Amino acid sequence: MTNDTPEPVTALPLADGSTPEIESVRATRVESAVVTRPAVPAPVALALEHWPLLALAASAFMLGAAHAFETFGGLAPCLLCLKQREVYWTAATVAVIAIVLSRSAWADRARKPALFLLALIFLYGAGLAAYHAGVEWKWWLGPTACAGGGPVAANDLVGLLKGGKVKAPSCDEAAWIFLGVSMAGWNALVSLGLAAVSAAAGLRRAARP
Question: What domains lie within the chain, and their CATH numbers?
Answer without folding.
Answer: 42-203 (1.20.1550)
